[in-house]
Specification:
Length: about 250
């Protein structure tokens, strides 16, 4: 995944700073407090409001609209196994995150730990691709337009961090960012496979879609690990802008 995928870091930076800071007009949620008994419920409402307004952006904190999102590079490289391939998704448009429903938030501010559960009705990635390798022992290669859609995704994001002092203020440095995703269905369309051989390309696309569960099962660890690494790196950029005391004024 490329450096332009900063959507999720913006989400967490905006989420924690806006729910904790003074209320702002229109699309910013009500403040939450770390020691409140209803902290998790408050964060669910705040997170839901953030997702809802991703298509508009957050001018108050300098964040542009984030759905749709342009992603310059997303690389998925799997090793040995039934599915072994190098897949790069290039200059792609990601759509659908603003339609997410936040189902639960479990926060432990004193431990710098957060867990967010959400569902996405549809998440679409459309752009260009390069691929080489094998799928269920069948060779695959090509480059061209791609269209990948995840339907009814159940996702869990787990964040862990540690305190870091800067200018006499406490900031958060993320040490772990685990991602788990479980789609109900994945559909794939890769044009121009096998140097434009339509028969082979149509056959491979049909095979991938008919066997999407096994294909995704094999790719799931590398997909989640790729997201985890980039999200932790970019999440730290966001957390570096807002002190923990600003996020939770009663800490």
């Amino acid at each position: 995944m490329g450096g332009h995928l900063y959507l999720f870091s913006c989400f967490f930076g905006v989420l924690l700073s806006t729910v904790a800071a003074a209320p702002k007009p229109n699309n910013n949620p009500t403040p939450c407090h770390a020691k409140d008994a209803d902290l998790d419920e408050c964060l669910v409402k705040g997170a839901q409001q953030i997702f809802k307004n991703m298509a508009k952006g957050f001018k108050e904190v300098g964040v542009p609209k984030m759905d749709p999102l342009f992603v310059s590079m997303m690389s998925l490289h799997s090793g040995d196994g039934p599915v072994s391939l190098n897949l790069d998704l290039i200059n792609a448009t990601h759509k659908g995150l603003s339609k997410s429903t936040v189902t639960a938030v479990e926060a432990h501010p004193e431990k710098y730990e957060f867990e967010i559960k959400l569902t996405l009705p549809e998440y679409n990635i459309k752009g260009m691709y390069n691929v080489s390798g094998k799928i269920m022992m069948l060779p695959i290669m090509g480059s061209g337009p791609s269209d990948i859609t995840f339907k009814n995704v159940q996702a869990v994001w787990k964040l862990k961090g540690e305190p870091s002092m800067k200018n006499k203020k406490t900031f958060v440095k993320l040490t772990d960012f685990d991602v788990n995703i479980d789609p109900e269905k994945v559909s794939v369309k890769l044009d121009n496979l096998f140097n434009g051989n339509k028969q082979l390309g149509d056959t491979m696309n049909k095979f991938m879609n008919e066997n999407w569960q096994e294909v995704f099962k094999q790719l799931k660890p590398v997909v989640e690990e790729s997201f985890s690494q980039i999200l932790m790196e970019l999440g730290n950029r966001a957390f570096n802008k807002v002190s923990y005391n600003q996020m939770f004024t009663d800490m």
